[in-house]
Amino acid sequence: MAKNVAETPMMKQYNEIKAMHPDAILLFRCGDFYETFSDDAIRASNVLGITLTRRANGSASSVELAGFPHHALDTYLPKLVRAGLRVAICDQLEDPKLAKKIVKRGVTELVTPGVSYSDTTLNHKENNFLASVYINKNRVGVSFLDISTGEFLVAEGTGEYIDKLLNSFAPKEVLFDRTKRKEFENLFGTRFFTYALEDWAYTPESAEERLLKQFETKNLKGFGVDNLSNGIVAAGAILHYLDLTHHQQTSHITQLARIEEERFVWLDGFTVRNLELYGSMNEGGKTLSDVLDKTTSPMGARLLKRWIAFPLKDVKPINERLSVVEYFFKNPELKKLLEQNITLIGDLERIISKVAVGRINPREVVQLRIALQAIQPIKKACSEADNITLQKIADQLNTCALISEKIGKEIEPDPPTLINRGGVIRTGVDAELDDLRDLAHSGKDYLNRIQERESAATGIPLKISFNSVFGYYMEVRNTYKDKVPSTWIRKQTLVSAERYITQELKEYEEKILGAEEKILSIETRIFGELVLALSEYITAIQLNSNLIAQIDCLLSFTKVSAENKYVCPNVVDSDVIDIKQGRHPVIEKQLPIGESYIANDVYLDNATQQIIIITGPNMAGKSALLRQTALITLMAQIGCFVPAESATIGVVDKIFTRVGASDNISVGESTFMVEMNEAASILNNLSDRSLILFDELGRGTSTYDGISIAWAIVEYIHENPNCKAKTLFATHYHELNEMEKSFNRIKNYNVSVKEVDKRIIFLRKLVRGGSEHSFGIHVAKMAGMPQSITKRADQILKQLENDNRQAGISKPVGEIAQQREGYQLSFFQLDDPVLQQVRDEIKNIDVNNLTPVEALNKLNEIKKIITGK
Q1: Buried-exposed string 209-248: b where 16+ CB fall within 10 A, e elsewhere
Q2: Of 31, 289, 649, 825, which is most buried with the most CB atoms under 10 A?
């Protein structure tokens, strides 16, 4: 809320408008500037790096002020939005010249992270989704809208399913019912930029009424969403939000599509993160999306991200995609033709959305025509292709020939960006416009004729000029002023000359200036009519955008497959995953030049080899092997060729991963707690077609606890009577190798290593049988651990392996004892009673169940024992 500043008339108007948008930065148009005041000015100056000033504001008061020129809005607005701020744009609603008192102003648009059309705010390679969540007991509805493309989606399910969708769509802003903030944060945390709406926006009656008004239908049955009652409430709330943010022009939002859970592979948030599908856990790391994205168009790049997030689980559409990729491989000329024409299309999806909101400029209209012309050869080539999927795409492509021709006839081929610059409409479109242009453009000749005639009649050397104060004038030097006719009217006296006007010049000036105004008015009218005609093609062009994006994604798969020697997988409706010489698609791209990726075979089925226990040392490649199996399966199910010599993929319906350790200390969850949450999520959602990857499960607790839990989990997956989920289980617990003897579908494998002269060489090959050693001490040496520590670790290991646990670990002996890098105090052999008390305190702590707050309290108690304070 703005500070209580002195009420000059303009500040009174500002405060009234600001009171309606207390949570937004208000950009207040004052002449040629957008100004911010008070608290808004302080925030804006910090975010934008613009000067903060103070100015007197009447009654001896002053106010903070920060502003920028109105034409720089596209530069500064994105910075404010990216900083997570809501921005209310307040414009002058009347011409200041015509205003009798203070200029009328009002908010024309409220821009938020989830609601933006600006090219400078949007990332052309990703959707800008606004999400809305409606929580109704144990069911949750969700809706996603990208206002820049018109894509409007809806779904419903458990909190876990909706959390998965929020992870996959990564909305820039999430709306929810303000009375359910606690439930929202319990389900989805606080990681999203959110905005709480009043509860009336989340009622079934209000939502349905708003949706029917949007689509101008009597019911929602035609969209196939009528049974998603909670999803419909969420979708209606989004449209209410658009009304609140002054986005009434929404004719490009033409349908509500259902996210069909049964069509797509389940990828939970852990899996999306762990497999690094489109976000890396390491700074500067590559993702699967980075490797696969060779798209040409922005629509293709956005769709590819969606395909990766939502792999298919129906064999038929998967094989349709694969057949197109294979066809492109065999027909390089067709591939080249399609790529060349898609390059010309640009961001057709967002351009057509600008038509709906009346924000399209003349250059974008010309780009739209270029895109429609480029679709013609694409349609022809696909219709002639010997591939049913391409022929189906060709049948649906619409070249929109009539509107394309109309644009070509009416708009100049290289028009200015702004309509008010003139020169947009071609000659021959409007007779009156052509006449007025002749008048305006022939002005120079007309003025020259007046100048010559008057000079000849008076003998005065004349020069006709123009200025904004009194228009056209004739300048006469003082030496000739006694020759000036009495009919001339003197307007200005200079040091060495005088300026005059004549009735004829005045009439001509009115004619010329009137012509320029009228030219602009006619051009604006014709352009507006063209945009209106274009709006009838929104649905057809949106479909074109989606079809071109599909072709672009399949071309991208072809290109990346050719570059990286991928092969066509055999995707079948079975429970077998048989990968021969598989590689990790991301890691192989990051290897040093000349080093090749060591490929491996993986075979899983539900009858003979359901669970593979993989042992082997750290750094041997267990995690990479797990991930590459999931990525190869996922790539096959999005319709892409895969990095392998051959691959038979029986479609999976869920991919689960429990990879690596990650604390969530901020909410009091230990590594082990996070592990158990993720493992529980997997075990509660198993299916017969699931693929599960466990990497080092149980290492967040004591060794024997960890082994017990890992054993019990593997046993549960093997013995589950309803679903035999295929599982890869990488572990350091060699004890789990014993399971193969008791469970017939569990098989032991290890990632092999070779020991040469007490040095370890990682062979990175998966071989049958368990591993006896973890070689952790070797890895410690490679990491640069001090030698005394690794030598001492060797001693301890030998004692442990000789079953000397009961006797305890003896003191270090010989040179190890003498070669410590620094003084070491043994905590467990003490004579000092105070230190004995500290030791006892530490030994009695149950670390696994200790919260961060309890840990701090315990540390404070130990400090008191030592200091006596």
Answers
A1: ebbeebbeeeebeebebeebbbbbbbbbbbbbbbebbbbe
A2: 649
Chain-centroid distance of CA 308 in Å reads 13
d(CA 353, CA 124): 14
The alpha carbon of 812 is separated from its chain's Cα centroid by a whole number of angstroms, namely 56
Adjacent-strand bridge partners of 654: 266, 690
Q: What CA–CA distance (Å, rounded) separates 621 from 554?
A: 31
Amino acid letter for position 444: K
Whether 612 and 693 have beta carbons less than 8 Å apart is answered as: no
CA distance 625 to 604: 13
- Given CA atoms 213, 214, 218, 221 in this order, what sign does their dihedral have? negative
First to last CA, the chain: 49
Cα atoms found within 13 Å of the Cα of residue 599, Cβ hemisphere only? 17
Find, among 156, 165, 179, the residue nearest to 232 by Cα: 156
Q: Is 317 exposed, middle or buried (0-12, 13-18, 19+ CB in 10 A)?
A: middle
> Residue 718 corresponds to which amino acid?
H
Residues 541, 397: contact at Cβ < 8 Å?
Answer: no
Residue with tokens 């929109």: 400
Which tens digit of pLDDT belongs to each residue from 349-375?
999 988 988 889 999 999 999 999 999
Collect all residues with Cβ–Cβ distance below 8 Å to 32 and sequence separation of at least 6: 69, 70, 71
pLDDT at residue 820, as a whole number: 47
CB of 276 closer than 8 Å to CB of 288:
yes
DSSP conformational letter for 84: T
Among the listed residues 181, 183, 115, the one whose alpha carbon sits nearest the alpha carbon of residue 146: 115
Q: What was the pLDDT predicted at 411?
A: 94
> Is 72:57 a contact under the CB 8 Å cutoff?
no
Q: What is the mean pLDDT of the chain?
A: 84
- Separation CA 454–CA 464 (nearest Å): 11
Strand 746-756 to 611-615 pairing: parallel
d(CA 698, CA 717): 16
- Tens digits of residue pLDDT in 56-68: 655 546 788 989 9
DSSP secondary structure letter of residue 190: T
User: Scanning the structure block, which residue is given the tokens 């479909």?
Assistant: 543
pLDDT in tens, 507-561: 888 788 778 888 999 999 999 999 999 999 999 999 999 999 999 999 999 999 9
Residue 126 DSSP code: S
Burial group, residue 567, by CB count within 10 angstroms (0-12, 13-18, 19+): middle
Supply angle C-alpha 273, 279, 281, rounded to 5.
65
Q: How many Cβ atoms from other residues are within 10 Å of residue 102's Cβ? A: 12
By C-alpha distance, which of 409, 422, 318, 323 is closest to 369?
409
Give CA–CA dist 187/138, Å, rounded.
11
Structure token pair of residue 498: 């005088």
Which residues fall within 8 angstroms of residue 803, CB to CB, at 6 or more apart?
none
Q: How far apart are CA 55 and CA 719, in angstroms?
A: 77
The answer to whether 478 and 497 are in contact (CB under 8 A) is yes
What the block records as the tokens of 497 is: 């000359």
Q: Tell me, rounded to whole angstroms, the distance of Cα 253 from its chain centroid.
A: 20
Radius of gyration of the chain (CA): 36
Which helix (H) or strand (E) is 625 found in, with range? helix 622-637
pLDDT digits (tens, 9 = 90+) for 644-668: 999 999 999 999 988 765 444 334 4
* Cβ–Cβ < 8 Å for 696, 731: yes
Map out the domains of the chain with their CATH numbers. 9-111 (3.40.1170.10), 130-259 (3.30.420.110), 293-396+538-564 (1.10.1420.10), 431-529 (1.10.1420.10), 570-781 (3.40.50.300), 786-818 (no CATH), 833-867 (no CATH)
